[in-house]
Amino acid sequence: MCISLSFLNALSPQIMPPFLFFQLKKKKSGHEALTELERMGRIGVTFEDSPSYYSNDDDDDDYLFSNGLQKLSIITQNVDGLHHKANSRHVTELHGRGNVLKCMTCGSFHCRREYHDLLTKLNQGWIHDALKDVDVEEDDSSSSKLRPDGDAYIANDNYGDIIVPPCPTCLEKTNDDDTTTTATTTTTPGFLKPDVVFFGDSVPRHRVERCYGAVKASDGLLCIGSSLAVHSAFRFVRAAAEENIPICILNVGKTRAEEGMIQQQQQQQQRKGSRSRSRHDEELYEKLEKLVIKIEAPAGPTLSACVQMLKSSFSSSSSSSSS
């Protein structure tokens, strides 16, 4: 069974606060189609479990209670959680989820929406001062209220006055320690950050290993809505090619795995005077030319049409069997 490497997108986050953006984003037809394909058994693999698929930070010993098998249907770089909203069951989010916060000290997870509500409550005065000179109707262009990095422009730059709530789990543990010991505690409650992989960060190794295991166990890899220009995604295409696993790419525009893009990269390397590719890479791209099937079409409508076709085919075969 094949697995899906999905990069379906919805809204742009630049005109709203990030936490609100994740709350408002809605699943699209492509997400729902992949959920239906998973339910129909058309995507998804079952493979042998391994300790390397679990984080060293896990305290609940999930592997010890595993039934010895892993299941995976969708690998995504998106952090919007839309595959879960569409009720897909076996999803690995390579770069985490934007609506979840993680403590940098104790590793506990927390709801981002609840944290932002608390942050707002504790900083009403600061927010009032920051927004009092903002005239939304002054300019219809929302981009005029954005900084170059996409963050909102605000008049108050005195961030030192912001009250940042500490990690509730660390705070609770610190309070418990204070009540059970007379010694002075030196433990400082940790701070929370979105549980996502930012630029410059690395994808947790256990997630990568789990995805490699799924790719190796599959009989096909379906890449949706990506140019595959980023290594984080392309490495799984490489892994499939090295195992001689067929690769189907559903995308509008050229991708890194296609012959045209390969030739373009070669020409760029020659112009820059960079050294030629290794023999291993040459063999890899030769495999890709034979293994890759490209479908030049929009992802959502195409996946929805596939689902309808499969359902129609199933209905026809069921009718023929009953007659």
If you had to describe this structure to a student in words, what would you say it looks like?
The protein is 40% helix and 14% strand. Helix 2 packs parallel to helix 11. Strand 4, helix 3 and strand 5 form a beta-alpha-beta unit. The strands form 3 sheets. Strands 5-4-1-9-10-11 form a 6-stranded parallel β-sheet. Strands 7-6-8 form a 3-stranded antiparallel β-sheet. The protein is an alpha/beta fold. The protein is built from 11 helices and 11 strands.
Write the layout of secondary structure elements.
Blueprint: E1 3-6, H1 18-24, H2 29-39, E2 45-48, E3 69-72, E4 74-76, H3 82-85, E5 91-93, E6 96-103, E7 109-111, H4 112-122, H5 124-131, H6 168-180, E8 192-196, H7 205-217, E9 221-224, H8 231-242, E10 247-250, H9 259-272, H10 279-291, E11 292-295, H11 299-322
Parallel strand pairs: 1-4, 1-9, 4-5, 9-10, 10-11
Antiparallel strand pairs: 2-3, 6-7, 6-8
Helix pairs in contact: 2-11
